[in-house]
Amino acid sequence: SSDLHIFQDRRFQLVFMDETGMLFLRRDIPFVQQLPPAVAITRASLGIADSEESLAPQLFPHRELTMSKALFMVNQPQKAREVIEMGLQRFPDVPELYIALANSYFFEGDAESGLANLEKALELNPGYANTWYNLGVAYLTLNRPTDAQVAFGRALRQDNTHASARYNLGVMALREGNLVQAERHFRLYTRDSPEDIQGFYSLAIALDR
């Protein structure tokens, strides 16, 4: 039978978000192979000065988010977290930093801590569809399918073309035997993602039952 994207499709093995959306990582993609084996983290390497006057021009933690992403890619989540926490000291109300912090916990298998930080990100910006999607993934990890369905639904409410949320809702409906809902989700998914053969396969399963 078809399975959730987060568990089956290679693109969704690791959900990793930055300020622009979602990044799906695999260790064998060329960009990851080109990264150095380690990245030294110091305040100087981040361009962080000690005086408030010199920090004033930076209005958004681009450096921290960029550096933490690079550290995730070289499998250094703890150092990435250090960078993110440095950013939070200066930008405590930026939801993207809590999303990045959640990624660091998910990377290490700590879904509870990841969930807490996603919830904090949603408090600051409840309209970001990808945060709702990742919250749904976290709920699935914690075996909370009802909460996951709600979160995926909220992702679609914010962005009705969010393909991954649509697909996962279709799979969950299929598992529950709700074939009408499953067919609807998969038809919309194949309309929005016609290049993905998995969507047509899942639709065929829903129609064949």
Our estimate of the beta-strand percent is under 5%
What's the Cα radius of gyration? 19 Å
Rounded mean pLDDT score:
75
Number of helical elements: 11
In spatial order, strands of the major sheet run 1-2
Low-pLDDT regions? 1-57
Largest sheet: 2 strands, antiparallel
Structure overview:
- There is one protein chain.
- The protein has helices at about 30-35, 50-55, 60-75, 75-90, 95-105, 110-125, 130-140, 145-160, 165-175, 180-190, 195-209, and strands spanning about 15-20, 20-25.
- The chain has about 210 residues and is mainly alpha-helical.
- α6 runs antiparallel to α7 (about 130-140) and α8 (about 145-160) runs antiparallel to α9.
- The radius of gyration is 19 Å and the shape is elongated.
Core attributes:
209 residues; mainly alpha; two-stranded antiparallel ribbon; disordered N terminus
How would you sum up this structure in a few lines?
With 209 residues, the protein is mainly alpha-helical. Helix content is 61%, strand content 4%. A two-stranded antiparallel sheet has the order 1-2.
Secondary structure elements and their pairing?
Blueprint: E1 15-18, E2 21-24, H1 30-34, H2 52-55, H3 62-73, H4 77-90, H5 95-107, H6 111-124, H7 129-141, H8 145-158, H9 163-175, H10 179-192, H11 197-208
Antiparallel strand pairs: 1-2
Helix pairs in contact: 3-4, 3-5, 4-5, 5-6, 6-7, 7-8, 8-9, 9-10, 10-11
